[in-house]
Fold this protein.
Amino acid sequence: MTVTERAPDAGAADRIEAMARQAGSVDGVAPLGEQPLRALRGPAGGARHFLATDPDEPGAAAGGGSVDPAIVGYAQLVGAGDEASAELVVDPSHRRRGHGSALVRAVLEAEPGAAMWAHGDMPSARALAEGLGLARTRELLKMRRRAAGGPALPDPHPPGGIETGTLAEAASEGGSRWPGMDTREEFLRVNNAAFSWHPEQGGWTREQLDDRLGVDWVDPGAVFLAVDAAGETPRLAGFHWTKTVAEPGKPVEGEVYVVAVDPSDQGRGLGGLLTAVGVEHLEGRAGAESVVLYVEGDNLPAIRTYERLGFAVEHRDVTYASR
C-alpha cells in the first residue's frame, strides 16, 4: 500500500466519489462533506489530495493500456497551521489493513497541526485516533426537526426597525427592496463578523461568496434576510441561508445551511426569528419532511434556541489533532 499526494484526475475522482457513497451506505454517515467533494473536480482552493493505492488490487486501465493500482483510500487537507483540517475515507472492503492510519500519518507529515474530521464519531475512528496519539479537539452536532409531530413554530415578530425578506428581493432586476444597500458586500460583512472564529465559514472573500451563491442548488428566494431599515441607509443585521435536498425516491430534506447575525445585533432575537422563518419555508413551500442543521457543540445559546424550535441531536462529528 502506498500513499501519494497528487490531484485526482477524472477517473480517480469517480472512484473517490463511489468509495465515499459506499462508506456512507455502510456507516450511515457521509465520510466527506460538501466542500471536499466539490474540490475533487472544481477549483482546488488550496486543497491537497492524498491517495492510498494497493498494488495488489487492479484499478482502472490507464491510457497506455496498463492497469493502475486501485485507490482504496483518500484524504483531503485544506488550510495551514492552526486552520488546517482534513477529511478521509477508506473503502469499506479494505478496512483494518492500515490504510486509514497511513493516510492520517501522511496528512500530519504534511501539516502537523491538522485537525482530522471523524463524521459520526464512529468507534473505529476513535480507536484510530487513540492509536495515533490524537486528542479530541472539536465537536459538531447534527440536529434534526421533523415536520410531523414537532412543536409549532413561533409567529415571526421582528424587533423595531427590522424588516425580513429574501435575497431575491434585495437583488431584483426591477430594483432592490432596500435601495442603497450593497447586498453582497453586506452579506460578506455579516458572515465574516459572525464567524470570525470559525475555521471554515469565516474569513471569506467576495470571490468565495460569489462562488458559494452561484452553485446550482442556491435559491435566492430561500435565503432570508433581516434588514435594519431604521437608518438612512439599510443595513443587513442577519441572514438565514436554507438548502433543500430532493433526491428521487427519498423524502425531501431541508437544511438550515447558515444562520448569521451581526455581533452588534446579538440579543435582539434575530437568530431565532431567522431560523423560524427559514424552517417555515422549508416545511411549507419546499415540502421538507424534516430539517437538519449543524452547530458547534460548545455553542450553548444556539443549541438552546434550536431545541426550543424542536430540533434534537441526531449525531456528532468530531475532530482529532496531535496533543
